[in-house]
Request: fold
Amino acid sequence: MKHSIVRFVVVLLASVLPMTFALHAQDESESIFTIHVVQRGETLFRIALQHDLFAEQVAAANGITDSNSIIVGQRLIIPLATVASDQRLAHTVSAGETLASIAAAYSRTEADLLSLNSLESAEAIYVGQELVIVPGETEPETAPTTIPSAGADSSDEIEPLAASAPGIESRLSFARYGDPIAPFLYKVRSGDTLFEIALRYNQTVDALARENNLLDPGLLRVGQQLIIPGIQLPRLAQDLPATVEAFTIDPQVLETGRSVRIELRTSEAASISGQFLGRELRVIERDDARRHNIIVGVPMFTETAIYPLTLQLQPAEGDAVAIAANLQVVGGGYGYQTITINNNDLLAPAIEEAEIERLTQLMSGFTTDRYWLNSLSLPAAAAMNAVFGTLRSYNGGEYNRYHRGVDFAGAPGTSVLAAADGTVVIADRLQIRGNTTIIDHGWGVFTLYAHQRETLVEPGQVVASGQVIGTVGSTGRSTGPHLHWELWLNGVTVDPLQWVQEVFP
Ligand SMILES: [Zn+2]
Reply:
């Protein structure tokens, strides 16, 4: 046992009580031991509970084999370092959080978190990252600002913090509906009474005494840790301009070929602009410019890495404020496929590139109205026989192309259905996609239907979700009758099935 000699020394020195010893061990965490003198009526179970330990842990630290054998006046080593390691929490970084705000929310320093997580700099954290946190003890000055009162809606308890930049008011906010993730422990200070502590945390003296198995509520000792029932440790520690009420990114980890929702809510009208992956973002303004939605399609061949999202918030009055978050992009987990095709002319890269270029131009527009309602519906009553994203090699070449849509194995003549309300952009014959219909659903969302035998709508025509717009065929570069269905988001092809299963934005 690494600390056995230290413990022996502690026992020898522990003549004055209560007493806490802080020893800096080789590892990064601080090892703290407290000595507890057994009082009349105490059991090992109660003593352990007071220190948020299991009776077995206290017994093991003191070489006790029979938990009923403790006696009044006996000095017990309470291994608080064990508490710390057991109380390691995983904090998932959310949009708007900074290392400083997370550290403050858990009463730690940025340096603590950098060291505990082997991070090089505070700027390195990204949304969705799991940080290891060992919550610190709340200082008297910060207790009212970092701990929401129990029972109340903590969103009303937002307290301003020191400004992170001149002229920018920022704040910490806490999750409203967070599950309790650890008991909040209050460390008794000199002069504290249970009544005052109860008052501070919106509790009753009885509840605190019951929760902590206090035999005599009048007998508190300095350094004693009290469980405060109902207090939740913060899950969100956003450090955002005061006008920002919410900042969410869903999902938090981005996948190539899939779509992500970014939402910012502001208490006053504001205009938002932003950039991600080298592109200017299209921001949808709603609710009198207080709700700002962005839907981003992650291009298929984006490298797995962390990328900065930058937003600029321009309030109706005053200076623009920058908001940043690092976002992780990972591969979408698509498979590989080799395809053999006889007509090599159609494989000429120039033909494919020209078609993609034309489609990109057709589907890069942004209609400010939204025509789809909830999720999209499937475009054919037929079995799906190829999913989106499969990396493809044609005739033994490189895997430098991918399946840009989802295939449905409909028999020739099967109805092709509009996946949502919208306006027809083209119904035309393309070299690779054959007879193709494109529908604009607004807000940068388009669907495309390829290889049709015939198209039954005209450009400019308004169509409804489920309306028959054509029939399944095998026109263009096709190995047999099927419907090839694509979804384009601001000029990027993404997995359409995500839009069938989820509601955007
Ligand atoms: Zn296909």
About this structure: The chain has eleven helices and 31 strands. The pocket of zinc ion is lined by residues 386, 403, 405, 407, 484 (CB under 6 Å).
